[in-house]
C-alpha cells in the first residue's frame, strides 16, 4: 500500500478522495525517489485498463500511470506472501490464511503489538488494575504462590545463612499476590561505579515513579554469599521453580493468560537466580521518573482475549498447545496396547483430536513450500499431500476391515466420504456466510469461479454415483426377512434388510458390468480434475481476477523472512504425515467398540466425527476469510475439498482396492445418494447471483443439520 497524499477539498464540498494514480504520484513526489526503487510486483489483469490522470502523465511516463491505476485487491509484504495469496485463488491449491513469512513490526496492528510486547516496559497511566483477568489470576495462582513464598521465606530465615533470600521471598510475597502495577528492578552490583555513586547520594531521596525512599541493602561478603547461594539452590529455588513451571504451563494452555506464563518463566529463569541484594520490588505510582536500576518485570494485565492470534515461529498458539496431545496419543496407543491404563473410547477420542494439529502442520507446510516454489512444484505438492489427512484414515480403516472380514469399516468410510462432501458443500460455506454476515451486511463473490467449481461438483457427483444408479436399475432386490401382512399368499408382504444383490450367478453382473463401470469412472474423474486445473490455471485464469501486489515505498521495503524454509517445511510435512498415519491407525484400531456398542447409527458417526474433525483447520481458515469480507475463498475452500473427495480421493481408494482387495465397492446407499445430490443442487442455487447474506448461510446450515438428524435416526447399515 502506498502512502496517501493529502486529500483536496472543493468549495463547499466534503473531503474528496483522489484517484489511486494521483495519490501514488503525490507519494512519489514527496519521497523524491526513483521509480526503480519501488520494488512493486504486480500481476497484470487481462482486459482493458483504466485511463490515467493527465496530471500524472504530465510528470511520469504512461507505463507508470498504467501501473498506478491498476486495481489491486490484495497487498502483500513481500514476493513470497504475494505468491501465497496468488496460490489461494488457484484451483486445486490449499487455501491458507496465516502468514508464511514474518510480518514487519510496523505493519502490525496495535492489538498484535501488545501481544508480543516485553514485560519490562513501563507505560503511562493505564487506569485501574482491578480487572476481571487480574482477579482470575488472584483466584487461580496469586494466593497460593504468595503462600508458598511465605513458607520458603520462613525456611530461609531459619537457616540464618539464607536470610538475604528469605528477605527477597518476603518482598516477592506481596508481588505475586497482586503483581499488577508493580515493578521488579535489577540493581547494580555493590562494586560497580554506578552503585558507588548511588551510595554517595542522599539516602532519603524519593522517586516520583516508585514512591518512597530507596532502601539500602546489606551487601554480604563473598563467603557468606556463596553459603547463602548453596542453601538457596538446595532448599528454596527448586520448589519455587517447580511452582512457576506449573503456573507457566497452565496459563499457557489457557491461552488468554499467556502474560502470566511469560511472567512466571522470567521469574524462574532470571529473578530467582539473581543475588538477593540486586533485586528490588517497588510499586509504580507516577510516570516520567528515572529508575534506580534495570526493569526486569512490569505487568499490568494478566489476561488478553486477543491471544488467540498469538503465534510461535508462525504457528498458531492452539496448534502449539495441541502438539503434546499427539505425543500422549502415540505413547498411550502403542505402549498400552491392552487397555490397562485407558479404554478404547479414550484412545479413539485422543487419536481423532490429534488429527487436528497435524492437519494444521500439513497445511502450513504445503502453503510454505508452494509459496517458495514455482507453479509445477506447488501443484505437485498440493496434489500429493492435499488429501493425505483423509486418505490416511480411509486406507487404514479399509485395511483393518479386510483383515477382520468386517464390512462395517467400508460402510463407515463411505459415510465419511459422504459426510465430507455434504459438510463442505453446506456447512462450511453456510457457517462462513453466517459469521461473515454478522460483520458485513451483504457479501459478494466471484460467481464465475464459483460456477466452475459447481460444474465440477455436478460432474464428480454424477460420476461417483453412476455405479450406484446402475446397480439400482439392473441389480436384483434381495430381502433378509419378509412377513405376510394380509395372511393371504397373494397379499402384501413386509420385508426388512433389503438390498440390491450384484453377486447373483457368481457375480456375473458385478464383475462383467459394475466393476468395469467403476474403473472407467475412476479414470474419467481424475482426467476431469486435470482439465479443470488447466482451465482455471492456464487458459482461463482471468476469471479469478487476481491482482496481488507486494509494493513498498522507498524506506519501507522488507525482505522476506520465511517462518519455514522449503527443506524445513518438507521435513515437517513428512513427519506430520507419518504421525498422521500412526494416529489414523490408532483411531481405526479402537473404533470397533464404538461401532459395535454404541446406540448411535454408524452413518451418523461417519458423516460427523470422522468426516468433519479433520477439516476443522480448513473451517477456521474459511471463517477468517469471511470475516475479512473475502467470501470467495471461503466458498472455494468447501468446493475444492468436495471436488477432491469425488475426483481424487474416491478414485485413489478404488485404485488401492485393485492392489489390496478390501470390502470397498463404489456402490452407496440411497441415503448417501439423495443427500449428496440435494446438497449440490441447493448450493448451486444459492451461489447463482454472486452475492449472499447471513440468511442464505442460515438456510445452508439448517439443511445440513436436518440431514444430520436423518443420519442420526437412520438404522445401521447392513454390514454393521
TrEMBL record:
The keyword Plastid does not apply. GO terms for biological process: intracellular calcium ion homeostasis. One of its GO terms (molecular function) is calcium:proton antiporter activity. Residues 348-465, 569-711 form the Sodium/calcium exchanger membrane region domain. The keyword Transmembrane applies. It is found in: Endomembrane system. GO terms for cellular component: endomembrane system; vacuolar membrane. The chain crosses the membrane at residues 135-158, 310-334, 346-363, 375-396, 416-438, 450-470, 517-537, 569-588, 600-620, 641-660, 666-687, 694-714. It is a multi-pass membrane protein. Keywords: Antiport, Calcium, Calcium transport, Ion transport, Membrane, Phosphoprotein, Transmembrane, Transmembrane helix, Transport. Residues 132-182 form the Inner membrane component domain. Its main location: membrane. This is VNX1 protein.
